[in-house]
Design brief:
Number of strands: 5
CATH class: Alpha Beta
Strand order of the largest sheet: 1-4-5
Number of helices: 10
Radius of gyration: 15 Å
Distance between the termini: 33 Å
Strand content: 5-15%
Length: 165
């Protein structure tokens, strides 16, 4: 399975000590050089930087045509990380793209890409027994200031017969 990730899932999962779920669930992740720059270089010392730079199972790739990236940014107003993630996913025919930004998710789905975010990753980790407490993971994300729809989180928890946040 070919999986391409944006920066926010790398950062958020690192913040809640669940970064290893990515390797457990997907074995290998591909990120764009723009995402690497955002997480590791610009984000040096912050959550996700060391995890990303030291993970041999994360491959950094460049978008073939940087002009496409500039055009897409001018057209959509989305960040370089999200756009490069989408372009790279199409370029390498990824099976899955990991994005959290709502606008980016909508655009990716319009382009025919299969999209997941942190909530789906945590649910899959919980389902497979890699994560022992889904509710606590959601609470940790909220404590870290991650913008999340509580209604979505509570629907997720309800599907596992867990109490709401």
């Amino acid at each position: 399975m070919i999986v391409v990730s944006d920066s926010s899932p790398l950062i958020v999962l690192a913040k809640i000590n669940s970064f290893s779920l990515l390797q457990k669930l997907y074995v290998k992740i591909v990120i764009s050089s723009e995402v690497y720059e955002e997480v590791v270089v610009a984000g040096a010392g912050l959550a996700g930087a060391t995890d990303t730079s030291e993970s041999s199972w994360i491959e950094v790739r460049q978008v073939d045509n940087p002009a496409d990236l500039t055009m897409a940014q001018n057209k959509t107003g989305l960040g370089l990380g999200e756009l490069s993630t989408m372009l790279l996913a199409k370029q390498i025919r990824a099976d899955l793209i990991i994005l959290d930004d709502l606008g980016a998710r909508k655009l990716a789905k319009k382009q025919g890409l299969k999209v997941q975010g942190c909530v789906a990753i945590l649910e899959a980790g919980f389902r497979k027994g890699y994560l022992s407490d889904l509710r606590e993971a959601y609470l940790q994300m909220l404590k870290q200031g991650v913008y999340l729809n509580r209604q979505l989180l509570n629907l997720s928890l309800k599907s596992f017969n867990l109490p709401p946040v």
